TrEMBL record, chain A:
Pfam families given in the database record: PP-binding (PF00550)
Domain of life, per lineage: Bacteria
Protein name: Acyl carrier protein
InterPro entries: ACP-like_sf (IPR036736), PP-bd_ACP (IPR009081)
Domain Carrier stretches: 1-79
Automatic annotation (TrEMBL), chain B:
Superkingdom in the source lineage: Bacteria
Annotated family: Belongs to the thiolase-like superfamily. Beta-ketoacyl-ACP synthases family.
GO molecular function: 3-oxoacyl-[acyl-carrier-protein] synthase activity
Xref: PANTHER family: 3-OXOACYL-[ACYL-CARRIER-PROTEIN] SYNTHASE, MITOCHONDRIAL, POLYKETIDE SYNTHASE-RELATED
Pfam families: ketoacyl-synt, Ketoacyl-synt_C
GO BP terms, alphabetized: fatty acid biosynthetic process
GO CC annotations, alphabetized: cytosol
UniProt protein name: Beta-ketoacyl-ACP synthase
Classification via NCBIfam families: PRK07103.1 (NF005490)
Keyword Protein transport in annotation: no
Keyword Transferase: yes
InterPro entries in UniProt: Beta-ketoacyl_synthase, Ketoacyl_synth_C, Ketoacyl_synth_N, PKS_Beta-ketoAc_synthase_dom, Thiolase-like
Organism listed in the record: Kordia algicida OT-1
């Protein structure tokens, strides 16, 4: 699965969790909190993405992530492994 | 001694099997429409009873869109808070928005720290949890982090206080099948104490898991045996062929407000809560208690400073349970012996099913609507009354003016409650 495909899935999940956010306002370099996600929304975006991509890794793996791209990178590294 | 305050109902809301707003619910009461049907859930395991008065074809987004007189920013906020929340929270948000709008609280505001919140509900996440178990057993990692908020009953307090910007006290109260009445009583007490001027009381629907259903079947409380194939006939309060309660769902809300506050805001109150009885018969079991029920009704009248001659309507607990109906009918006979000719009775559960934790609120709302529109809703399945000395409403609605009413609710664990209401027209 390409990084773009992973990003597309993450985008869909963000829109599901944050119904007020328009797709064009989501950009890979942005931080989730900048588009209105609180800490629980952010954790939910992570667990839902893991589920969607069938990834099981410790949540600590996302510790250094500080924007959407970082999240997509960790997911992408672990998808299909 | 507390100074006695006049406390009224200034807003009401409902999401139920017979109406997702007060207008539709009123129409269903007038027409005697039953919400009891075959259950929509076809999940395994198949249970012996599969009829209920469920909130059907529920769509949070759709109903939110259809609500009237809700400011745009509140709709947005409600959507944000409710869209991914469990079913029961979605329904309480909708019921509460209706009552808040009717009480004029969006525009004609009250200081937020003078508003309290009582959530009447217990075990409200049973089915939500049950549905998560199989996936959890496979993949515990994928459990939503939101679960840690949502399995707490007090999540309702958080969600509703955020939505309505309530800063007074907020609690969850339970009282088995009397939970709805307990919620109204606790809200009333907050107002009497002077802690708040307005109290939003919200009733959380029972979302029973198959486990809970089977428990009620095994304890012998649930009806629906003879009439499993004719669901609308199954709930028969005070009829000789009653055979247990039929499960119903409803989310409810009532705004209680001191007369001083509603007058200052120029908001009408439809009815006053003038007294309540809350009596424990110290019993850990499920059986009703004659003396306990009598005392609850007497206490309600004493607190209201009225006598049994003042009551002209009783909304019975009437759950269609043989022993329950018989005990309540006897209690009413004993308390009102000389005045039975003035008193009409009906049982709302015949139409709504037994809404368990919200039954008390459903029935107070039904009582207030009957006061407002001068009618008594029918007892659709009452063909052979268990007593001939009580005036039960027949199988069609009746024109009638309720002046002063009692609304009874009794629950497992020896809980007996009764609320006295006065028509404000």
């Amino acid at each position: 699965m390409s990084k773009d495909e992973v990003y597309h899935i993450v985008q869909e999940i963000i829109m599901e969790i944050l119904p007020d956010v328009e797709k064009e306002n989501i950009a890979i370099e942005k931080q989730l909190k900048d588009i209105g996600a609180n800490s629980i929304d952010r954790m939910e975006i992570v667990t839902m993405s893991m589920r969607e991509l069938n990834i099981k890794i410790p949540l600590m793996s996302f510790a250094g992530v500080n924007n959407i791209e970082g999240l997509v990178n960790v997911l992408h590294e672990n998808v299909n492994n | 001694m507390l100074h006695k305050k006049s406390i009224g109902i200034t807003g009401m809301g409902i999401v139920s099997s017979i109406g997702n707003d007060i207008e539709t619910f009123t129409h269903s009461l007038q027409q005697g429409i039953s919400g009891i049907q075959k259950m929509s859930n076809t999940a395994e395991p198949v249970l012996a009873v599969n009829i209920a008065a469920e909130i059907r074809d529920f769509s949070f987004a759709e109903q939110l869109k259809n609500l009237k007189n809700i400011p745009e920013e509140k709709v947005k906020k409600a959507k944000r808070l409710g869209q991914r929340a469990p079913f029961v929270i979605q329904t309480t948000i909708l019921a509460a928005l209706q009552a808040w709008a009717e009480a004029g609280l969006f525009h004609n505001k009250v200081a937020s720290e003078r508003i309290g919140l009582v959530v009447a509900g217990q075990n409200s996440t049973q089915n939500y949890q049950y549905k998560l178990i199989s996936e959890f057993n496979e993949n515990p990692e994928y459990l939503s982090p939101r679960y840690a908020l949502e399995f707490l009953e007090t999540n309702q307090v958080g969600v509703l206080s955020e939505l309505f910007e309530i800063e007074g006290e907020g609690v969850v109260v339970g009282g088995a099948s009397a939970t709805g009445n307990v919620g109204i009583i606790k809200g009333h007490q907050l107002l009497e104490l002077g802690n708040v001027d307005v109290c939003l009381v919200v009733g959380v629907p029972a979302d029973l898991s198959p486990l809970d259903m089977q428990g009620f079947i095994n304890i012998g409380a649930m009806g629906g045996k003879t009439y499993n194939e004719q669901p609308t006939l199954a709930c028969r309060p005070f009829d000789k062929n009653h055979e247990g309660f039929v499960y119903g769902q409803a989310s409810t809300s009532i705004v209680l407000e001191t007369q001083q506050s509603s007058e200052e805001r120029s908001i009408a109150s439809f009815a006053n809560v003038i007294g309540y009885g809350y009596y424990l018969d110290k019993n850990s079991s499920a059986n009703p208690n004659l003396a306990g029920e009598e005392k609850a009704m007497q206490q309600a009248m004493e607190r209201a400073n009225i006598t049994n001659a003042d009551i002209n309507y009783i909304n019975t607990h009437g759950s269609s349970s043989p022993l329950g109906d018989q005990t309540e009918a006897e209690a009413i006979y004993n308390v009102f012996t000389d005045h039975l000719a003035n008193i009409h009775l009906n049982a709302t559960k015949g139409l709504t099913g037994h809404c368990l934790y919200t039954a008390g609120m459903v029935e107070v709302i039904a009582t207030v609507l009957q006061m407002k529109y001068d009618f008594l809703h029918p007892n659709i399945n009452l063909e052979q009354p268990i007593r001939s000395d009580l005036q039960f409403c027949g199988n069609t609605a009746k024109k009638y003016t309720i002046q002063t009413a009692l609304s009874n609710s009794f629950g497992f664990g020896g809980i007996n409650t009764s609320i006295a209401l006065k028509n404000n027209k």
